[in-house]
Write a structure and sequence with these properties.
Elements (H helix, E strand, L loop, with lengths): L1 H31 L9 H41 L7 H30 L1 H17 L6 H20 L1 H4 L9 H25 L2 H20 L9 H4 L9 H20 L5 H20 L18
Helix pairs in contact: 1-2, 1-4, 2-3, 2-11, 4-5, 4-8, 5-7, 7-8, 10-11
C-alpha cells in the first residue's frame, strides 16, 4: 500500500512538472508575440496540467481498444474460416473470454482517467499553435518557410478541435438541438482563423502572426471558461460564412455500414452471444475507420440500434 502511494505521489509530482513546463513555455511565447500584458488564466493552467496527467491513460485506452477489436476480429475470422462447423477447444474459448474481459475492463478504467485529455485537447492545440507562431515570429529568412508551414499545420489541427469543441466539452448531449448553433459558431471561428492566416500572404509576417496568436489566446481563454458558443467575440464573426462540417455525413455513412454489417452477420446464424460480440467488434472497427483516434466520442451512435420499449 505504501509503495502504491509513493508511486502515485511521484507520478503526481512529475505530471505537475510537465504542466508547469507547458505553462512556462506558453508565457515565454506570449511575451515574444507581444502579449506580455495578458495573464494566463488559472483555469487554463489547470487545463494544461490535466492534459499532461491524462495523456498516458488515454494512450493506454486507445491501445487497449485497438487490441480488443483486433482480438475479437481475429477470433471470429479463425472460427468462421478455419474451424467452421468443428468443435472448439473449450480452454481456448475460456482464455479468449478472459482476455476480452480484461481488455474491456482496462478500456473502461483508462477511458475514465483519460477523459480530461480529450476535453482539453483544444487547449493543447491552442498552446501548440501559439508555440508555432512564436517560433515563426523570430525565425530567420532561411528558416521562415519551414516555420510558416508549421503554423499552417498547427492551425489545421486547431480547426479540427474547434469544430469538435461542442462534443469534447462534455456539456452537450448527443443529438442535442444545441449542437446546430454551436457547429455554426465553430464554423465561423474557423473562417476567422483562415482569414487571419491569409494575412501571412499579403501582410507583414510579424503582424499576421500576432493577430493569429491573439485569436488563439481568446479561443483558449473562453473555452476553459465554458463559453463554447462564444469562442470569439461576435463582432469578429459578423458576416463570416461558416466553414462546413461534414460530421453528419460521416456519421450517416458509419450508421449505414454498421447496420449493413450486422444484417450480414445475421445470415451466418451465429449463437446470440457470438452475434453480439461480432456485431460490437464490427461497429467499433467501423467507427475507427471513419473517425480515427476520436472514435470513442461517437459511441452514443449505438443508442440508435437499441430496441424500443
Amino acid at each position: 500500500m505504501s509503495l502504491n502511494i509513493s508511486l502515485r505521489a511521484r507520478w503526481g509530482r512529475r505530471v505537475r512538472r510537465w504542466g508547469d513546463a507547458a505553462v512556462a513555455e506558453l508565457r515565454v511565447d506570449l511575451d515574444r508575440l507581444g502579449y506580455g500584458w495578458w495573464p494566463i488564466p488559472p483555469r487554463m493552467m489547470v487545463a494544461l496540467r490535466h492534459t499532461s496527467a491524462a495523456d498516458v491513460p488515454w494512450f493506454f485506452f486507445m491501445l487497449a481498444a485497438v487490441m480488443l477489436a483486433y482480438v475479437v476480429a481475429v477470433y471470429f475470422v479463425v472460427v468462421l474460416v478455419f474451424y467452421h462447423g468443428q468443435d472448439q477447444n473449450w480452454r481456448w474459448l475460456v482464455a479468449w473470454a478472459i482476455l476480452v474481459a480484461l481488455l474491456m475492463k482496462l478500456c473502461v478504467k483508462m477511458r475514465d482517467a483519460g477523459l480530461p485529455f480529450v476535453r482539453n485537447q483544444i487547449t493543447s492545440a491552442c498552446r501548440a499553435t501559439i508555440r508555432a507562431c512564436a517560433e515563426a515570429y523570430g525565425a530567420s529568412h532561411i528558416q521562415r518557410p519551414e516555420k510558416l508551414f508549421a503554423v499552417g499545420t498547427a492551425l489545421r489541427r486547431l480547426e479540427g478541435n474547434v469544430m469538435r469543441a461542442h462534443r469534447r466539452s462534455g456539456t452537450v448531449a448527443f443529438l442535442s438541438p444545441r449542437r446546430r448553433e454551436l457547429k455554426t459558431h465553430a464554423g465561423q471561428v474557423v473562417a476567422k482563423l483562415r482569414e487571419a492566416e491569409a494575412g501571412l500572404d499579403h501582410s507583414p509576417h510579424v503582424e499576421a502572426l500576432s493577430e493569429i496568436a491573439g485569436l488563439v489566446v481568446t479561443i483558449a481563454e473562453r473555452y476553459v471558461d465554458g463559453h463554447i458558443g462564444a469562442l470569439l467575440p461576435e463582432p469578429l464573426l459578423e458576416g463570416k460564412k461558416p466553414v462546413p462540417d461534414r460530421e453528419l455525413l460521416r456519421v450517416s455513412a458509419a450508421v449505414v455500414l454498421i447496420a449493413g454489417g450486422v444484417v450480414g452477420l445475421a445470415f451466418l446464424e451465429l449463437p446470440d452471444m457470438a452475434m453480439a460480440v461480432a456485431g460490437t467488434a464490427w461497429s467499433v472497427l467501423t467507427l475507427m475507420a471513419f473517425f480515427g483516434r476520436n472514435w470513442a466520442q461517437y459511441l452514443p451512435v449505438f443508442d440508435l440500434f437499441k430496441p424500443g420499449p
